[in-house]
Specification:
Length: 298
């Protein structure tokens, strides 16, 4: 990038614009609410800057040189663009918004946070667009700062520390299986729980150990984990079509008539679900509106 603007007082360009409009130092000074000697000093600096007299004495005031005539329109456009940059932004109007937001969420965050927010989002900002993408927790902060992600939903345990955060809710685990499951007509004992065939969600793929297994190990016990799946959507299909059971976040199965849900016989710590965003959009009015809208929807 050129450094031709380095050291230039931008007020000089405002003065030049006034001089090219008025062709008179006194009238330019009045337009700028400056003294006539002050504008004369600035004109001298402008002549030195451009290496051109810019304005020459004439019979009816001052007349611009060819260089000054060539500067007139691009200078006016540049000052107008600069004014737009520094002017206060208009209040965000979701009804007129056409933003496209990229949101990082695995299926649990999408199902429990974004799906409930979609109807209100579509009604309030019909021309806005939302892209739901997946990103490994270790990559979220970098992608957010680079502009690849505008918002992310993660658990407190995996959320990067260098992003802004807001807790949306605290989740707890329940035991779920298909409706009519013979061992879930009432909460099972811990011994029965361990003998059931379990399915576990492993977002990284292929894992057979989770928070439940950590709690069991502290009590010297283990359970039978027969299946590992990469996401909660597949988990739901497995639970409704087999006798496998799973420890699942309550929000995923609450109100699902196809599943039998009971309290587990052991206390597995829940988790906080966070909304995360980078500093680059922290004060953006549209992004603030999106965050508040989502927070109200959960």
């Amino acid at each position: 990038m050129s450094n031709s603007l380095k050291g230039i007082d931008l007020n000089l360009l405002v003065t030049l614009d006034a001089l090219l409009i008025e062709h008179n130092v006194t009238r330019a000074a009045e337009r700028l609410h400056l003294s006539q000697p002050g504008v004369s000093v600035q004109l001298s600096r402008l002549r030195e800057l451009f290496g051109d007299p810019l304005l020459l004495p004439g019979p009816r005031g001052m007349r611009p040189t060819a260089r000054a005539d060539g500067l007139r329109e691009p200078l006016r456009q540049a000052l107008a663009a600069l004014q737009q940059v520094v002017a206060p932004s208009n209040p965000f109007d979701p009804a007129l918004a056409n933003q496209s937001w990229r949101v990082a969420a695995f299926d649990y965050g999408a199902l429990t946070i974004l799906v409930p927010a979609l109807e209100m989002l579509r009604a309030a900002a019909p021309a806005a667009r939302l892209a739901i993408v997946q990103s490994l927790p270790s990559q979220v902060a970098r992608k957010a700062e680079q502009g690849d992600i505008d918002l992310a939903f993660m658990t407190g345990a995996e959320a990067p520390l260098d992003l802004h955060r807001r807790t949306l809710f605290t989740e707890r685990y329940v035991l779920a299986g298909r409706a009519g499951h013979p061992h879930l007509q009432s909460p099972p004992s811990l011994a029965t729980f361990c003998q059931l065939d379990h399915v576990i969600v492993s977002p990284e793929g292929g894992g057979f150990h989770g928070a439940t297994d950590t709690v069991l190990a502290e009590q010297g016990m283990t359970r039978r984990v027969s299946l590992s799946v990469p996401g909660f959507l597949l988990l739901g299909a497995v639970l409704t079509s087999t006798d496998l059971v799973a420890m699942v976040p309550r929000r995923l199965v609450c109100g699902n008539d196809a599943l039998q849900v009971v309290e587990p016989p052991l206390d597995v710590p829940g988790f906080e679900m966070l909304m995360l965003w980078p500093e680059r959009v922290h004060r953006d009015q549209a992004h603030q509106w999106l965050r508040e809208h989502i927070a109200r929807s959960v």
